[in-house]
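Continuing the series of single-chain predictions for the mutant panel. This is the parent chain; the variants come on the following pages.
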Amino acid sequence: MPTRILVIDDDNMTLQFVGTLLRSAGYEVKVAADGPAGLALATSAPPDIVLLDVVMPAMDGYEVCRRLRNDPKTQNVLVIMLTASGDPTLNHQAYAAGAYACVPKPFRREALIATIESVRAGAMRQNPDSPSKDGGKV
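Parent structure:
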């Protein structure tokens, strides 16, 4: 079973680009155009990983991440924040909200895939009873 990734970003071009990139790498991908829609998708069918934009209208990525962490259905979902800002305090805020990693935009395909795999591997080391990295839920 492929790793399930939910991409939450208010930029439609980013959603299309990242969705296509991840599908071509073998991931199962769903997308949401804002925080509330992403939370609804995440709670109805929890993904393995959420790629989450920081700056969005209605609800920013930090709030989405905090809500994911506070919901028993999604508290163990791995969150990777995406940001176009070079402000180093954003990384601190992302980790404080519960993110596992931060990826600056723009990013290279290889860097995003490497971050996803690194976060998955780290989560599996912390929880050795999780299914193997061949696509099982972590």
